[in-house]
Amino acid sequence: MGAIVTLTSDFGLGDSYVAAMKGVILSINPGARLVDICHDIEPQNIRQAAFILSAACHFFPKGTIHLVVVDPGVGTDRRAIVLRTPMAEFVAPDNGVLSYVIQQSSAKPLAYKAESREAELEPELEAVAITNPEFWRSPVSPTFHGRDIFAPVAAWLSRGFPPASFGEAVTLLKVLPLSRPHRASGGLVVGHVIHIDNFGNLITDIRGDDLPAETEGISVRVGGYKITGLRRAYGEGEGLLALIGSNGYLEVAVRQGNAADWLSAKVGDEVRVKTGGR
Amino acid sequence: MGAIVTLTSDFGLGDSYVAAMKGVILSINPGARLVDICHDIEPQNIRQAAFILSAACHFFPKGTIHLVVVDPGVGTDRRAIVLRTPMAEFVAPDNGVLSYVIQQSSAKPLAYKAESREAELEPELEAVAITNPEFWRSPVSPTFHGRDIFAPVAAWLSRGFPPASFGEAVTLLKVLPLSRPHRASGGLVVGHVIHIDNFGNLITDIRGDDLPAETEGISVRVGGYKITGLRRAYGEGEGLLALIGSNGYLEVAVRQGNAADWLSAKVGDEVRVKTGGR
Amino acid sequence: MGAIVTLTSDFGLGDSYVAAMKGVILSINPGARLVDICHDIEPQNIRQAAFILSAACHFFPKGTIHLVVVDPGVGTDRRAIVLRTPMAEFVAPDNGVLSYVIQQSSAKPLAYKAESREAELEPELEAVAITNPEFWRSPVSPTFHGRDIFAPVAAWLSRGFPPASFGEAVTLLKVLPLSRPHRASGGLVVGHVIHIDNFGNLITDIRGDDLPAETEGISVRVGGYKITGLRRAYGEGEGLLALIGSNGYLEVAVRQGNAADWLSAKVGDEVRVKTGGR
């Protein structure tokens, strides 16, 4: 059974770019099995791509190769990287698009260095900077490394070449300053909307683990509304509701409706949870 | 050759949900061959999903497994089901999303029970309620049975486990009250728009079989317009035209244009066909 | 390893049509490996499909079969064709959708006959008109040859049947009058926007080869703006910029922005390049 290679990009499905990458991969590894994660990332929205990638990649078999091309810095001096975690391999620009993956593959919170926007990798994570042109298409277009560098590297990885084939080991990778909720006085947890899904559900950076096990008496404030209590499922209750979603984050939804439209909400909006007490 | 598993959902292609289901399936059956039917079903539009599924599934090889996740009741007490027809197997919530499939796999019109919104299956159709958690992911998210119940069940089905592995036989399934044309005096057949496709073609519930073999003198009234005669193809004639489309239904189209925009038409609109005579 | 069959259409991803074609192909050749090029071609936009197909197909392995269904003339007397080039096979309506592929597979510029809108194929290119119904689904819907003629022919091709199986050789195919830049006095090259991609980049018909090797002093005028010099990558400079894109064409882009929106540009707009001197 050929290796699985997933693809994530901001290329959209209305053009030739995704197919060009798939053609390149199949030309190098005809046995590769290609699975799209998402190509409708907003143009150059690294944060959104980082989130969606991390929400999907954990469900793939061990050893899956994830190709990620959201790359506003293509053709500049940003690095290209291969990252190997205990579960999977990633081929991507070094621009923070692997931030959630790195965080979730790490035992400790990332030590984010604000000046360099980098974090040190834990020893379980192996990364190389892609510098060996032997595996690239030639000539390389300065505007489409997805086709000429990332796709070929992913394809050769899928044929069993180890990460070290493609360049030198690195231990610092660019990461985004991932939003995290903080605790305020009066039993408040203050977080933010980090993603809005196709149903208009607001996904926050507040994890179920950030809330007390006893959710009785919890209230959620967002966009001027107050929601009392947590539900289990979207189909429970009426109107606005809050629940712990399938990725473990607190979500705000509307039964059979669109919470983002209802609240005119957007990524970054504050969400305040009052736990227990009054 | 691995089993074919198709996927239909209202998850859209702009998020991680479809990929998560695919990862789950490939983790259980690495040989499964995944084919998307459609993920751009309007959120929670069971009727639209039922139609699109039925318009595609008959063209797949015998034994194909169709996974359908349009599931506004996820996490509530709606049942999850496996349906086996002589041609294929379906894994879906029991909410009517298989209505057209069940109707088209049945020799007689469905006996729809308005009070329970159910129909009795004919003996050729075998259904089970999915109740055996042995095949599910654990824990099951109350908001994403697609990933945690439906996808694993489809994957295990694709590995050859019979439907009975997953739960108890049932003989009554939820169905939608499918719109059907009726005959009125004066040689009228009165139907409705049941689907609007990507070209803006209006697909009605009137089948070619509902019309006389001699279509000379037929006229179609929709949205205040009258169309005279039937054409064979979209490229014949000018302006608004009517024809029998590729699924056997009467369609209203505009040559090189968009009939839904032209007529401001929507699903449910009435379409009146006057057959023969004057 | 099964043959690769790509699919390009204007069917969109919101309906059953693409899946129906895939089901038909897999029913005939269960080993076929299906790859989507693009299904979001604007309805009936033959020129756009021709461009996107040509921008993707060259990256697939030799022998790939490309199925193209953008077919406003379906059911009329337009021909259906199989085209074999040294690199690939194409199954498509004979309506110009293979124009770029034919041009790029030819040593000389196409001799376009304005009266018949056809061009004579060079001997390296083999074409047949699809006339042998033995390989079609039966009955053929006059409105969906994609499902009933093109998909089955592509599937049988992928099983190794030679093009001659499907009909008689032809040497003249319909082509579009492809826009080409012309030279004007004062070192001007006058071209046009031929495509706008997902990022809003304007792709012109001016190839890097049409410009002097020394690009110092070049200026590009489009939509009332003047851009000085060429950049290498989208991430260089600020605001509007021009560069040679990944398919070898001059492009106009905005760093981290959308040039088509900025300039209210559309396909067909004039782009004037002043080379060298002043």
Task: Provide an overview of this structure.
Three copies of one chain form a homotrimer. The first copy, chain A, has 278 residues and is an alpha+beta fold. Helix content of chain A is 18%, strand content 32%. Chain A has five helices and 18 strands. In chain A, strands 11, 12, 13, 14, 15, 16, 17 and 18 form an eight-stranded antiparallel β-sheet that branches. The first copy, chain A, has a seven-stranded mixed β-sheet with strand order 2-1-3-5-4-8-9. In chain A, strands 6-7-10 form a three-stranded antiparallel β-sheet, with no helix packed on it. In chain A, helix 1 packs parallel to helix 4. The radius of gyration of chain A is 20 Å and the shape is elongated. Chain A starts with a strand and ends with a strand.
The amount of helix of chain A comes to 10-25%
Total number of helices of chain A: 5
**Average of pLDDT of chain A:** 95
Helix vs. strand class of chain A: alpha+beta
Please give the number of β-strands of chain A: 18
Q: Which ranges of chain A are low-confidence, i.e. pLDDT below 50, for 5 or more consecutive residues?
A: none
Give, in order, the helices and strands of chain A.
Answer: EHEHEEEHEEEHEEEEEEEEEHE
The largest interface is: A-B, 37 and 32 residues
Q: Tell me about the biggest sheet of chain A? A: 8 strands, antiparallel
Radius of gyration of chain A: 20 Å
Distance, first to last CA of chain A: 57 Å
Described by its quaternary structure, the protein is homotrimer
Beta-strand residue fraction of chain A: 25-35%
Give the overall silhouette of chain A: elongated
